[in-house]
Structure formats: C-alpha cells, structure tokens
Design goal:
The longest helix has about 40 residues, at about 10-45. The chain has a domain at about 140-410. Helix 5 (about 145-165) crosses helix 8 (about 200-210), helix 5 runs parallel beside helix 15 and helix 14 crosses helix 15 (about 400-410). The chain is about 45% helix and about 15% strand. The chain is of the alpha/beta class.
C-alpha cells in the first residue's frame, strides 16, 4: 500500500517561482503586443518620424468635417482611406515589405513591374489600372486586324505630313526590352504571348510597303537582338533606353538610313545611376551601372535641360526634356531629334555624325498655348533649319505617337 506525502517546501517554492515566471512572461508578451499595435498610432498622433509619402501614387488627404448629410455618409470611408494611407511608420513598413519580397522572395510588389529571369525587371504598363497593358499590346493580345489597320493609317498620315514639312524626315521606332529580351520574360508571360501575333512586325511591314515611306521607317529589332549578344542593349532594371546600348543603333541609323560618315567616336565613363523605375519600388535601392559618353574628350559641348535653349527658354521650361550637342569646331550637318522619353538616351550619340544635334521631347507639348506651339515650330524648323529630322518613339507608342507629333507639325496652320 502506497501513501502520497505532501510536497516538500522546496518543490512548492519551485512551483510558485515557475508560475510567477510564466505570469511575467505573459505580461511582457501582452505589453509588447500592445506596444507594437500602439506605436504607429502614437507616431501618427505625434507627427514625428513621418515624412512625405514614398509610394508612386497620391495618398489620401485628411478629410474635412462633414457639413451635409451626403458628406456625413461618405465621411467614415474617407477617414478610413486617410488612416490607411497615413498611419505612423507606414513608409517604413512599405519599404521593409518591398525589401523582404524583392531580396528574399524574388518578388516585386508593384503592379506596373514584372520580375523576369536572371534579374531582369520589366516595366509593363504606363497606367496602374491596366497592368501588363504595354506588354500585351506588343504581344498582340486584343489587337485585331482593324486595330492594326488604324495604326498603319494614322502613322502613314503622320509621316506623309512630316515629309511634306521636311523631306528628309525619318521615323525610328525603338524595340523595347520586352521585345528585345523576350526570352527574359517569366515563363507564364511568355506562354501568354505565344498565343498571339506580335503587333509591330505586321505594322512595320505595312508602313514600309508604301513607296514613299519605304526608306523612312526604321525598326531595328533584328540588329538590336544581334547587339545583345555582346552588350547590354537595355540595362536589367530600367525601362528607358540608357547607357551605351543606344550607341550602335545610332551608328546604324546614321550610316545606313541617314547616310552620314562618322566625325568622331565617343568613348564612355562607367558610373552608377539610379534606375528610372526606382519610384515603383520604394525602399529597394535600384542602381544601374551606366557607360555615359565622354563628350569633353570628343570636343563636343553637351547640354541637358532648359538653360540649353535661350532661343525658347520659356517654352523649354514647359517641355522639360530637351538637350543639345555641338562640336566645338562647328563642323558637320544639323539634326533635329523629336521624340518621346526614349529620345534622351540616344540623342547624344548622333553627335558622332552631326555638328549639332537638337533634341526635344513632345510629351508635354500640350502644355503650350497655340501661339507658343507656332513659335516653337518656327524656331525648330526655320531658325535652326536642320538638315534632317529624326522622330524617335518606343514601339508601344506606335498607336498614339502621332497625336503629339501632329500638334507640332500643324502648329500655326
């Protein structure tokens, strides 16, 4: 027969100590949880450590107190949106989330960017509400025969007008990274694209079939795909055409289409620059090793920005994206390069063939008044009087580039 004796004093004290330890642990845990939950609110209320928004969108603003019944009904949702966008430490949490997903999971938390193979990042749409829109257009998704015919018609009308204004006018449509590096797209996107007929080849063929445009349309896809075997035609983590990638294309265009001999050969200096898609991934540092031309060594005066054009400085301030290149010895013909945002990266390389190059982007031309547009056209075409005009737009712009171009060519009519 066994008897259970009461616990000894030492075992009882051990039990009490363990109980207190568990209690203290729970209290510390609860305090830590409440601290984590309350910290953003305290930071928000204090107004400290909360800088401007780092996201690529406009954040909700603090709503005013409602004054009508309709405003009262909408007020809770407005407050909710404001708190979601502006709570304390939001910027830090957004940055940490992006860093974790990008560096650890290989994921990109941005609807306008697509993670490709081997570290390639693709900008997929100009609008957040139509993700993949640009890539789908290039692949041919939802682009029917009527759409292609309409693009050919508008592009033809524009180029015929351009040639009437200046006979020596040419159109360079730049194949973008999703086309040149289609093999670096993720497999699921390659499989999607394989179901459709790419938009550009048929459009280009139709344009070049017209006798008056046969030698005016330039779409160097085959050449750029050949160049990529020995160089980075596009950096891995940019959208725009930057670095030394545009140089061989500028040489190809200048020699084979514009029929000029090279005056100088630009060498380059390597340094890191921020990526043009940095804004879409706040918190993730995206830098691009870039070879920039050494204009000083080549005897070329290179100037980027509004101050470069005293001839139309007020207009240039509205246009924004302008640049100018001039040989110190003033030799060689003159080129006017009219573009979208893809012109900036290639414009300087044409100074290998031209004594002076003016580059202007038309992205903001609708900000000019009718009078300013007419004056702008007069300065570019009559006063500068270029020997040749080269229109440069990226391939996905083929369906709308003529809108801004036509504003310039029709100005003053």
């Amino acid at each position: 027969m066994h008897y259970f004796s009461p616990s000894s004093p030492s075992s009882s004290s051990s039990f009490q100590a363990a109980t207190k330890k568990r209690l203290y642990g729970r209290i510390i845990y609860l305090l830590a949880i409440f601290g984590i939950l309350l910290t953003p609110a305290l930071v928000h209320m204090s107004g400290k450590l909360q800088g401007p928004g780092i996201e690529n969108r406009a954040l909700a603003t603090k709503p005013a107190l409602p004054r009508t019944w309709s405003e009262t009904l909408k007020f809770p949702a407005a407050v909710d949106s404001y708190l979601n966008d502006n709570f304390g430490l939001r910027n830090n949490l957004v940055a940490w989330n992006n860093q974790l997903r990008y560096h650890v999971l290989g994921d990109i938390n941005a609807v306008q960017l697509t993670a490709g193979k081997d570290g390639y990042i693709f900008f997929n749409s100009h609008a957040a509400n139509t993700p993949l829109g640009m890539i789908h257009f290039l692949c041919g998704k939802n682009v029917g025969e009527k759409d292609r015919a309409e693009i050919v018609r508008t592009a033809t009308d524009f180029m015929q007008m351009a040639v009437q204004v200046k006979a020596e006018s040419y159109l360079l449509l730049v194949p973008t990274k999703p086309v040149v590096y289609a093999d670096k797209l993720p497999d699921w996107l390659q499989q999607q694209c394989a179901q459709y007929t790419p938009s550009l080849p048929g459009i280009i063929a139709a344009l070049k079939s017209l006798p008056e445009l046969k030698d005016k349309i330039i779409y160097p896809l085959a050449e750029m795909q050949a160049f990529k075997k020995s160089m980075a035609v596009f950096p891995k983590n940019t959208f725009h055409w930057t670095g030394s990638g545009p140089q061989p294309v500028a040489q190809l265009v200048a020699e084979n289409y514009l029929h000029h001999k090279r005056l100088v050969t630009l060498t380059s200096n390597l340094h890191d620059v921020p990526s043009d898609i940095q804004q879409f991934l706040p918190g993730v540092a995206l830098t691009v090793p870039t070879h920039d031309p050494d204009y000083v060594k080549a005897g070329i005066v290179a100037c980027l920005g509004v101050a470069c054009f005293p001839e139309f400085i007020e207009t240039a301030s509205k246009i924004g994206d302008v640049s100018r290149y001039r040989h110190r010895d003033s030799r060689g013909p003159k080129l006017l390069l009219i573009s979208d945002s893809f012109g900036q990266g290639v414009a300087g390389f044409f100074s290998e063939y031209y004594g002076e190059v003016w580059h202007v982007s038309l992205n903001s031309i609708n900000q000019l008044s009718d009078k300013e547009q007419a004056s702008f056209k007069q300065i570019l075409l009559k006063e500068y009087a270029p020997d040749q005009i080269l229109y440069v737009f990226h391939d996905a712009a083929v369906s709308y580039f003529d809108r801004n171009g036509s504003i310039l060519l029709k100005a003053g009519q």
